[in-house]
Design brief:
heterodimer, A: globular, B: mainly beta, four-stranded antiparallel beta sheet
Chain lengths: ~110, ~120
């Protein structure tokens, strides 16, 4: 099983600040790493696919990078509506795993 | 518009059974792999099961193998999860999700809560 480890677990950030969340895989997964945003009492929403590909309708302040085992989600100029938990995810048809999540709080 | 609507959750005693359903609309259901993902209260996301377009391949997380069965009815645009021998640790919100290229969960339902307790 591929283990995904996110850091940090929690981040308290002021609006307009830049946020960086990392996700490390226990073995190389190429670019098959996706990022999701989950707000309280909502289902997860796809933010970034295949490490760095943008999703239609997602604000451009969200971006992703990385390949192999190390990946990064960046939120440029954080807005109040970005308060949420962010998860990285990898899977194949045989199954998948998620990172433990990073909670972003607005100061 | 892609829509996934789960139903069937509720309170069940340990050892009991429950069948979850997911009604799909807004896309050609029979063309996609589908998944179930769960989230225990206050915890992170856990993939549960995958099923191929025609139902010929099914995969499960180890903790539910032999107890849960994923299935689908393409004529009814519906996905199911039969859960037997339920345990307290199965308590979670269960989401169905559409799978793209066998790897990407691009649309999720709103979830249905399963509580296993006596």
């Amino acid at each position: 099983e591929i283990v995904l480890t996110q850091s940090p677990d929690f981040q308290s950030v002021t609006p307009k600040e830049k946020v960086t969340i990392t996700c490390r895989a226990s073995q190389s997964i190429g670019s098959s790493l996706h990022w999701y945003q989950q707000k309280p009492d909502q289902s997860p929403k796809l933010l970034i696919k295949y490490a760095s590909q943008s999703i239609s309708g997602v604000p451009s302040r969200f971006s992703g990078s990385g390949s192999g085992t190390d990946f990064t989600l960046t939120i440029n100029s954080l807005e109040a509506e970005d308060a949420a938990t962010y998860y990285c995810h990898q899977s194949s048809r045989y199954g998948g795993t998620f990172g433990q999540g990073t909670k972003v709080e607005i100061k | 518009e892609v829509q996934l609507v789960e139903s069937g959750g509720g309170l069940v005693q340990p050892g009991g059974s429950l069948r979850l359903s997911c009604a799909a609309s807004g896309f050609t259901f029979s063309s996609y792999w589908m998944s179930w993902v769960r989230q225990a209260p206050g915890k992170g996301l856990e993939w549960v099961a995958n099923i191929k377009q025609d139902g010929s391949e099914k995969y499960y997380v180890d903790s539910v193998k032999g107890r849960f069965t994923i299935s689908r009815d393409n004529a009814k645009n519906s996905l199911y999860l039969q859960m037997n021998s339920l345990r307290a640790e199965d308590t979670a919100v269960y989401y169905c999700a559409r799978v793209v290229a066998a790897t990407l969960l691009d649309y999720w339902g709103q979830g249905t809560l399963v509580t296993v307790s006596s």
